[in-house]
Design brief:
The chain is mainly beta. The chain is built from 1 helix and 4 strands; from the N terminus they run αββββ. Its main location: nucleus.
Length: about 80
């Protein structure tokens, strides 16, 4: 009986080399903030900035990042 072994990088795939598992984005790097008339949970400022990002698979909802322009309080929700 002959047993052979190979390393995972022994047969490189062009598709695997192009594939990335994710992006490292800071909330500040994501442009296009919109405003929502809802009070800040921390300081009760009447308006919150928000942006949405698709962090999970396409068949799941986007993640919404909220930032208070007054006290810079931040939180996120998954839709």
């Amino acid at each position: 009986m002959v047993v052979t072994q190979s390393r995972p990088n022994a047969f490189p795939s062009a598709l695997k080399q192009k594939h990335t598992t994710g992006q490292n984005l800071a909330i500040e790097d994501i442009g296009g903030r919109a405003q929502l008339e809802t009070p800040c949970p921390q300081c009760d400022h009447p308006v919150m900035n928000f942006t949405t990002v698709q962090l999970r698979s396409a068949d799941e909802g986007a993640t919404v990042f909220y930032t208070c322009p007054n006290c810079n309080y931040r939180y996120s929700t998954n839709n």
